Amino acid sequence: MTELYKPRPQFEDFHARSLRWSVIVAHRRAGKTVACVMDLLTSALATPKPQARFAYIAPFYSQAKQVAWDYLKHYARDVAVKVNESELSVELFNGSRVRLYGGDNPEALKGIYLDGVVLDEFADMRASVWGEVIRPMLADRKGWAVFIGTPKGKNAFYEIWKKALADPDWFTLMLKASETGLLPEVELADAHKGMTDSQYEQEFECSFDAAILGAIYAKDVAQARAQGRVTRVPYEPSKLVSTSWDIGQADATAIWFYQWVRQELHVIDFYEASGEKLPYFASLLKSKPYSYDTAWLPHDAEHEHADAEKTYEGGLRSLGFRTRICPKLPKIEGINQGRLTIARAWFDERNCDPGLEALTAYQWDYNQRHDEFKNTPIHNWASHASDSWRYLSVSLKVDELRPKPIKYDLRGYV
């Protein structure tokens, strides 16, 4: 295997490290994925632990397969006794196993243990996946972790980088294109011509200060925090609780819980889970101490089937819930309404934290060829909570309480 891989000089210190925790901030095409796949394999071969387990986690399962699977199979070909295409894993002759996962379905990770893990493009993952899911997996085996990626603003990846720089127990490595020499200067100059300065600084010079392209709700959530509207917002038992749903059959289902209290919109709870059926969510709602009003559903809930006989809306009704279909509006109009709703809402800081995290990460897609934003957001882990928030917003009867709608220029989100 070692004959198949010759590390780039920039990664030699990384492979020689002895520290448990590492973070690598690297420019595009620096070779960080190959280096980390090899690090997983060499660790899996060298470990004395029986039945050792190592993982590479990308923001999406499909992304893990596309980015790392061919590398893993290639470099493991001489030491693997089993290659499992269906679960994207290789088992080595010493009983160790290396497997690829997606951070978009953290529930699939629960219950396993890990001796080492690489989190690729951590800036694109839900930050809570680390503390709530992955870190506990490393505890009993004293496993190690490597965070790698390219900056995307001052988010959780930035916080980890900043913490690592101040902590001697962390290995840190930053690779800027202007310093590594891995890409020809003529290629970098050509790339810069086709990108904004912020894009180039972020992608090739590893700048955490570059503007986040296309952030949709980030400024609105930041303003809510600055105004003290993200705080402790308790459930008011004398008021009914409405819910808004974004339904995923094979994807995540996201639900916001909210009340009207003294003409204030109190958002008291949020829940999201992947791969679960309607009875699971109905049971979840009934397990909470809330008295419910309307469950607002997306327009496809009257067509999508929860089982062989009932639509999702019909299934919820049969389980005792009052339902309504959310008005169908153009997505841009719904998003504008979502911004206005954030501007007047109060959020429970604990229960709503995962949802607010998603709203902050929600972005417009970007057409690099035409140097302009598309009219559609990026579909990623943040989409489900954000779509559910959009349904909440367009269903509110708050015309007399909110300011008149205003038009937003997409470039204003840069």
Helix content: 25-40%
Per CATH, the architecture of the largest domain is 3-Layer(aba) Sandwich
Could you tell me the mean pLDDT?
89
Oligomer state equals: single chain
**Overall SS class:** alpha/beta
- How much is the radius of gyration in Å? 23 Å
End-to-end Cα distance: 45 Å
Low-confidence stretches: 398-414
How many strand units? 17
Number of discrete domains: 2
Q: Please report which band the strand proportion falls in: under 5%, 5-15%, 15-25%, 25-35%, 35-45% or over 45%.
A: 15-25%
* The CATH topology of the largest domain: Rossmann fold
Note the total helix count: 14
Query: How many strands, what sense, and barrel or not for the largest sheet?
Result: 8 strands, mixed
Widest sheet: strand ordering? 3-4-5-2-6-7-1-8
Query: Can you say what the CATH homologous superfamily of the largest domain is?
Result: P-loop containing nucleotide triphosphate hydrolases
**What would CATH call the class of the largest domain?**
Alpha Beta
Inertia-based shape: globular
Question: How would you sum up this structure, described in words?
Answer:
- 33% of the residues lie in helices and 23% in strands.
- With 414 residues, the protein is an alpha/beta fold.
- The protein is globular, with a radius of gyration of 23 Å.
